Predict the structure.
Amino acid sequence: MIRRQKPEKNPPDEKKIKFPIEPVKADYLYGLTREQAEERAAAGWSNEEVGSVSLSTKDIVKKNVFTYFNLIFAVLGVLVCLSGSFRDLTFLPVVILNTVIGIFQEIRAKNVLEKMNMLNAPKTDVVREGKIRSIDSALLVRDDIVIFKTGNQICADAVVCSGEVRVNESLLTGESEEILKKEGDSLMSGSFIVSGKCYARLEKVGDESYISKLTLKAKAMKDEEQSEMIRSLDKLVKGVGIALIPIGIILFIQGFFISHEGFQGSIISMVAAVIGMIPEGLYLLTTVALAVSSIRLAMNKVLLHDMKSIETLARVNVLCVDKTGTITENAMSVQNIVLLDEEQDMDNVKGLLSDFVQAMGEDNSTMAALKQYFTEYRGEKPLKIVSFSSANKYSGVVFESGNFVLGAPEFVLGNSYENYREKIEEYSSKGYRALIFGKYEEELNGKKLQGEVEPWALILLMNRIREEAPETFAYFNRQGVEVKVISGDNPLTVSETARQAGIAGAERYVDARTLKTKEELEEAALNYTVFGRVLPEQKRQLVRALQRKGKTVAMTGDGVNDVLALKDADCSVAMASGSEAAMQAAQVVLLESDFSKMPEVVAEGRRVVNNIQQSASLFLVKNIFSFLLSLVSIIFVFTYPLGPSQISLISMFTIGIPGFFLSLQPNKNVIKGRFLQNVLLKALPAGLTDVLVVAALAIFSRTFGVGGEDLSTAATMLLAIVGFMILFKICKPLNSLRLAICIGCIVGFLASCILFPGLFGISSMSTKCVMLFVVFSIATEPILRYLTKFNEFIQRLYGDREQYKKKLKSVKDVLQRE
């Protein structure tokens, strides 16, 4: 006998093993027996969740702990311990802190998302052995008889056995209206019951259900889908990872067998060189800065599913949004009623419409708006009610005075629509949604209207523009982010709504139904701003078309129908009021479903990326120096002149501490250029200066007979001087905070050298060493200055070349079009 207290989730991408069972069509009032339910659970036919998009806590810990560079650091730590120089383990706290912060942030995001998922996974009423009980939705099995009623979310694909319900499938299909489901009709998982009650038999459960299949597609996020900054860091790390092992081995062999430094000296110099080449501080800075930003955003009710997504969003130059919920409020309101039949009286029409909407359930925002507006009831009793059907786009009521219908003009008027097209499109062009109310002479049966409808009135509704929408879109316009409005509504209506919201280019609209080929879609993606009558699959195609044109695309969505487009976008943003699948597919979740938070997210991303880019050049100075100095020491056969503790001291006060504070400074500038190229070009002059002065000092020290401890101390001081020079340059223009950072770091460095000389390997220098140190200290400034000027000259040449290429390309494009 199988008894499970709590269902366990399947690991991601692992398909549950199922054994064949005979289907059972139990009586809906009795349901399955206990044995039948247990048999199905044991055979794998339960409604357990598909593997979560997020990793388990155990997997998160493993991912952050068992990395290539943590392995390198662990090996280096063991070697340092074996050498007995425990003071040179000062690099380990940075490595541990970096790992802990990464684990903490990922677990925090996972926990927040799972809490949100739990809210969307309520219990379900099931009939078993003639008794109704409420159980966890995950414990349901195939062939179970369940009871769905108003407010329930359908937890698995099912078929109605008895009763009637109206279902909202908007999260699945994008269609906002409700559909009547009767006995024998299918119910799709993920949709909601808006009214009524029914008994339904579960046909597809667990990973076979419609919503689970979409969720599994959403999970297919590839590891290489990283941001520009993270990709650049990974490239840097891969390059260093390949180079440091042979360099480390050669340095040890040189120190132990050629220079006869002994085991301890050879290990320490090798470890110092290898640590200097690894940008462990840069990863820590990036992790901390992103973690701080994610906390800031969380305080503003914005969840980052992945910390790295903040940078991608900061680089976005095309933002795809929906009309409803983003530009406009979800609630609709009746703006006006226009008589189409001159013989009709306005009071009579309003009275009849009041009785009409009174007979209907308040199942959607349209009907809620109509009920709020039409309240002048005449008291006519409905003889028959035809609920709205998304297939036929109308609802109807039979009164003693006649049969009346209300719905979309194209469907209600049929062939006579052309007679009213001009008037209807006139209102649509002003942002209204138009409904036709009229009298129908034939029998109302819920099927497509075959006869003529006598139109009495045109009802004009509108979703109110969100108060903050114009300001939000003005921000994106100023930032050079192009907005594309993708909606299932009439393109004229969407265009006018977008214009009122201040979206640039809103007058350029297209009906997506006219875009039949891939080429037409790609051309439209570039030339139009508003896309109406868009099918769910076309959303994904539009995102891909924009990406093929070199755009960095962000996509907002809240429904299951948005999942595939969200997955393909460079950065995806979901509303918490939407579906669980959309929230799991998205990288950013707006917990209050407030689109006006987007400028804050973009501004925060730009602040982080620009500041990390600025601070990263400080870190790469050390990496460039260590790499090149290692090569120089191998070529000229001298021992690497610094120890691990000295590298840690310099890194702390010229790189780590100032880099961290600089990464938290305000910076809303548009991100320009490529991350790795920008930071390498900034770091190169200082790195080369360090190599030249320290290598020359090492060679001169050997000539003048200066000892190894003196050389290490002098090299540490020289690196500090160059480090503070580049720090002052990066901090310009100086403000009080940046000046305080620079002065504080200098004071901290000197205090550490004076108070803890033994910990950091700082010793008093001989007279010869002091003289060499003074000479090379004076030389650092002109060397750095001229190398910087040469670097800027090379950058200008490269920039002019790129500008020439762009101009040439634009001329070729013009000639081709002509």
